[in-house]
Amino acid sequence: MTVSTFPITIVRSSRRRTVAIHIKLNGEVTVLAPNGVREQQILDVVHQKNKWVMRHLDRINQRKGRGLLTHLIPGGWFYFRGKEITIVRGETDDGLFVTPSQFSISCQGDLVLKIREALFKEAQSIILPRVQELARQFQMVPQRTRLSTAKHAWGSCSGKGVVSIHWALVMAPPVVLDDVIIHELCHLVHPNHSDRFWNLLKGYTATEPDSKAWLKMNHHELNWAV
Ligand SMILES: [Zn+2]
Ligand 1 centre from 224 Cα, in Å? Predict the structure, then answer.
């Protein structure tokens, strides 16, 4: 079936409550829908999200052209706060790779490692203060907050109230970082994914599904450093 300019596959499930669009890294667009929803309703949702889907498909095509992570080289780029930072060779003789604003990375040794170190430093000064700020704003009180280096989770909230946020999220757009933090802070109130949890979360942020989708789409742009 074709809607607009891209083909979609509809997958129905009795466990789903809402219609969601997933875009795989190969550009396949799947629409997940609850059993009872009429096809026209599903197509309407896809139509509303048309721009969003197109943007992601464009990105996939660009990435195919550039190749996966072959961009971590002089002249290439990496993500910081959701923006592509260009890696350019500096004017100086000591071989610095100077990028806009705060990044100034020596090319002595492993460049990828150097970029990772620089990003980790940024993460330390950005992420934990942001967790505290949002916790204050929503009147949540974590026992402790920490930067995570976990392999398989962007965030977690322990039974003891320790909120962990992955440092590599410093590469994601600020709204994506915020949504992961808000998700984990809401677990301080509901340590599960019950309806009450999702209702609380929705009261604090409307962008969580988009943030999740961004992470799904771009995880390899962050994972190289994990
Ligand atoms: Zn959760």
Answer: 23
Higher pLDDT, 135 or 16: 135
Tell me the pTM.
0.67
163 in any annotated domain: yes
Look at residues 41, 66, 91 and tell me which one is the last residue of a structural domain: 66
Domain limits at 28? Answer: 2-66
DSSP string, 60-91: HHHHHHH-TTTTSSTT-EEEETTEEEE-EE-S
C-alpha 191 – ligand 1 centre gap (Å): 8
Q: From the CA of 182, how far away is ligand 1's center (Å)?
A: 10
pLDDT digits 0-9 by tens, 42-93: 888 888 888 888 877 777 666 555 444 567 777 778 899 998 887 776 555 4
Q: Are residues 49 and 83 in the same domain?
A: no
Cα(120) to centroid of ligand 1, in Å? 24
Residue 72 domain flag? no
